[in-house]
Design brief:
disordered N terminus; alpha+beta; Nucleoside Triphosphate Pyrophosphohydrolase; Arc Repressor Mutant, subunit A; 2 domains
Length: 294
């Protein structure tokens, strides 16, 4: 091995270092002689985020679009899809109609809040209750409010038993006045969801009683879809779906007796997926209250 291939640690004491490689003692001497670098400016402290004021708080409200069927004002016309609305008695939007609802409690889940606010506003358990959508546009309310919207179905007898107040009225869901906040948009979306879902689920059964004729069930579909359905095709599709069970009872009247049917309770009103929850429980009746959204 030549001298140039020998590592630095194998050189004999007193031998000169290779060219271009400073002696260790020279490096140490130069470092000691160099003046210390002046200290740089201290880093600016990180400003703490401002404490949010009342106007910066984000609140969560839960409201429900409650669908039911009510008789048409014109004799012979099909029933209409209706919803209850409450008149606001304070600003903003004082005097305008709005969806019933309330604030989400700090210690309750969304489904529990929906059941609670529905019980507070109608006093009745719905045949169907499902989360619809979240509405959180920044400009939808003077304060920052995110609304979690549910929608529910009430049978005729349930809707008739609801306790209402002087600022509560039923409205045709397809002919609403200008509502508070973005509630017109919310109702439009809920109505679209109802009409879409009725085509692939038995959700319409949530609007009829425990026993019904196929003609009565068809009229529910016609009211939701706002069009006539062929009776023979409807009967064939319903009976083939397995969603109804014939009984031994008949409804009598001016026409020939019509067989009564019941739900097949083994079939869900709609597929809720893996997050299926328990059925909504009944609650003590209460007066309808105005929307708590501000």
């Amino acid at each position: 091995m030549t001298q140039t291939d020998t590592p630095e640690r194998t050189r004999q004491a007193g031998s000169p270092p290779r060219l271009g490689v400073p002696a260790p003692e020279a490096v140490i001497s130069a470092q000691a002689a160099a003046p210390a670098a002046p200290p740089g400016p201290a880093p600016a402290p990180i400003a703490a985020p401002p404490t949010p004021g009342p106007e910066d708080q984000i609140r969560v409200a839960v409201s429900t679009v409650i669908f039911t069927l009510r008789p048409a004002e014109t004799p012979g016309a099909r029933d209409r899809v209706a919803i209850p609305l409450v008149r606001r008695t304070r600003d903003p939007h004082q005097g305008q109609w709005a969806l019933p609802g309330g604030w989400l409690g700090t210690a309750e889940g969304l489904d529990a809040a929906a059941s609670r606010t529905l019980a507070e506003t109608t006093g009745l358990a719905p045949s169907f209750l499902e989360q619809l959508y979240a509405f959180g546009d920044v400009q939808r309310s003077p304060s920052r409010v995110v609304s979690i919207i549910y929608w529910a179905l009430l049978r005729r007898d349930q809707a008739a038993a609801a306790l209402v107040g002087e600022n509560v009225a039923w409205f045709d869901a397809t002919a609403l006045p200008a509502l508070a906040f973005d509630h017109n948009q919310i109702v439009d979306y809920a109505l679209w969801r109802l009409r879409t879902k009725v085509g692939y689920s038995r959700i319409a059964h949530g609007l009829v009683g425990d026993e019904f004729t196929l003609a009565e069930l068809r009229e529910v579909y016609e009211s939701i879809l706002e069009r006539r359905l062929d009776p023979a095709n409807f009967r064939r599709q319903v009976e083939g779906s397995g969603s109804v069970v014939p009984t031994d009872r008949y409804r009598t009247g001016n026409h020939r007796p019509a067989r009564l049917y019941q739900y097949n309770h083994e079939v869900e009103l709609a597929d809720r997926g893996p997050l299926a929850r328990a059925l909504t429980q009944s609650a003590t009746p209460a007066r309808l209250t105005e929307s708590s959204e501000s």
